[in-house]
Amino acid sequence: MKRRKFHSELFRREILPDEVDFFAIVYAELLYRMADLKEKNCSCMRCKDNLVKYESALRDLKEERLREVRNMVLQENRQVESTKH
Hints:
By secondary structure, the chain is mainly alpha-helical. It has one domain (6-84). Helix content is 69%, strand content 7%. It contains two helices and two strands; from the N terminus they run E-E-H-H. Strand 1 (6-8) and strand 2 (13-15) form a beta hairpin. Helix 1 runs antiparallel to helix 2 (45-84). It is elongated and about 60 Å long.
């Protein structure tokens, strides 16, 4: 998932890709938009498509974040191992 600027409906401001809490903000925004669509219970194709898009983006975001965390842990482990020798 490529980071890019977007307007947050939840926070009512522009979210920049270099923000420290970018993943947390995007995660909250996706949950907010999904809850809003589910609450509206609209049956039009646009709302249904958006809900599917948000659910897919949420899965992708979780996978990307998990990869980042794994990479950070691996790097930390390598640093620890290199200091032992």
